[in-house]
Design brief:
DNA-binding; about 190 residues; mainly alpha; Arc Repressor Mutant, subunit A; homodimer
Amino acid sequence: MTKDVRKIKTERDIQTAFLELLTTRPFTKVTVSDICQKSLTSRSTFYSHYLDKYDLLDRIVTYYQTMLVQQLDQNFNQMVAGDLESLIHKVIIAMAPHRRAIQILFTVHEPHVDLKESFRQLLHTEWRHYIQKQGPIHEVPVELIADMGTSMHMTLIEWVITHGTDSLPAVIESISIIRKAILLQIDESQPSP
Amino acid sequence: MTKDVRKIKTERDIQTAFLELLTTRPFTKVTVSDICQKSLTSRSTFYSHYLDKYDLLDRIVTYYQTMLVQQLDQNFNQMVAGDLESLIHKVIIAMAPHRRAIQILFTVHEPHVDLKESFRQLLHTEWRHYIQKQGPIHEVPVELIADMGTSMHMTLIEWVITHGTDSLPAVIESISIIRKAILLQIDESQPSP
DNA sequence: TGCTGACTGTTCGAAAGGCAACAATTAAGC
DNA sequence: GCTTAATTGTTGCCTTTCGAACAGTCAGCA
C-alpha cells in the first residue's frame, strides 16, 4: 500500500519546481508547462497527479494547514495550564524545517487558497478557545483580545520564517512582555515579569 | 537520439547522492545500496546505467578531467604570448560552478581514479610545453620550473575550490609576484613588478 | 570448518513516466 | 472582428524504472 518511489519523486520534483517558480513570478503567470519544464516531468504525468495548477497549489497549502492543525491539537492537549509559551515554541520549532516553503506560500493569495489567511484563522480560533477556557471576563471583549493574541502570534511566525530559529529564544523572551500584557486582560492572577 | 529525461534525471540523482555520501564516509565504505537508497532509485536501475560503483566514480572523474582538458586547449590556443594570467583566470572561472563536486572528488584517491592527481599531471604537461615554447634555457632544469608552476597552479585551484571566487582578483594579484618570480627563471625579458 | 549476514550483480513482469499528436480554449495584436 | 500564438487537457504507444526474487561472493566469527 506504500507508494511507488517514482510517484514520490515526481511529486517532490513538481512541488519544489513549483515553489521555485513562485519566487520568480506570481501564481497566475506560472503555467503547467513551466512547472513540467523545470521539474523535468512531462505534462501527461503532471495531469496524472494533479487536476491542474490550482489543485497543485491547493494540495500543498492543505498539507501545511493540516500540519499546523495537528501541531496545535497535539500541544494544546498536553499544555500545562497557562503555558502558552511552550505551545508557541513547539509549533514554531515544528514549522522551522519548512520555513522556505511556507515563506513562499505566504505570498500567494488566491480566492480560496491562502495559507497565510488560514493560518491566521486557525490561530484565532485557538486563541478564542483559550481565552474562554480561562473563565468569564467582563471589562474587555473576547474578540479584541483574541485579535491581539493572533496578531502577536502571526508576527512571531513570520519573523521566524524569514529570520530562522537562531535567535528564537531571545525573540520569545523579548515579546513575553507583550504576551503577558495581553494575558493580563483575561486573568488577573497572571504574574507580571 | 537525445536521451529520455528519465535517464538524465536518474543519473543526476545517482551522482549527487553519491557525492553527498562521499562527504560522510570514504569511497570504500559507500555501497551501491547506499547510493540507491539516498537517490531513491532501485538497484536494478543503477546497474542499467553503471557497471558498478567504480564505473560511476570513473565516469564522474572523467567528466571533470575532460572539462579541464577542454578549458586548457581552448584557452591555450587563444592565449596571447605570455599571458598566463588570463589562462589561469579563465580556467578557474569555468570550474567555479562545479567547485563543490571537485572539492569532494579531490578527497578520493583510488588506484586508477584520482581527480586531483590527474589535474596535477595535466597542468604539469601544460607548463612543460609552455616553458619549452619560451625558448631554450640553460641555468635551471625545465622540470623544476614546471614543478614550481604546477604547484602554484594547484594551490590556487584548491584555494578557489574551498573559498569561492569572491576574492579571486585579490588572490591572483597577490600570487602574481610568485608567478613572475617563476617566469623570470625562463625568460629574462619578463618585466618585474 | 561451516554458518551468518551483508553486499553484489542479474532477471522478469508490472507500474509509471515520456513523447508526440490532437482538439479546445484563451489572450494579444492588427 | 480576425488571426496567430500560447496554453490546456487528453489519448495511445513506447521506454524506463521499480520491486522482489535469485544465486554468487566475501568477511567475520563461533
